[in-house]
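User: I'm writing a short methods note and want a consistent example. For DUF433, I'll paste the sequence; you return only the structure tokens, no commentary, since I'll be parsing the reply automatically.
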Amino acid sequence: MKKNIYHGKTVGKTEHPHIVKVQGVGSGEPVILGTRIMVRTIVEQYQLGSSIEDILWEYPQLTSAQIHDALSYYHDNRSEMDKIFEQASYEYWQPIIEKINHEHTQNLS
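Assistant:
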């Protein structure tokens, strides 16, 4: 992955021309170049039944090529993306939140 600096942030280029990883943007998740729109966001909408046209309607600043490249990135990097999806889930964060709440409650007593 090639790295450049953009507005003081490290930009990691990927093998996909429209997809980058920017330090401090989207928690380092892959995003569409020139935006803060995460690949995960596009994939989630597509998996929920949105067509490419629906996604273009929702994100008029994107091109069809950018959306297709986001979907392609997902398929080419399944293990990375599956981990990102897992860490973005309620099931992943639920026990962590409960532990923090429990510790906070104990500190108050």
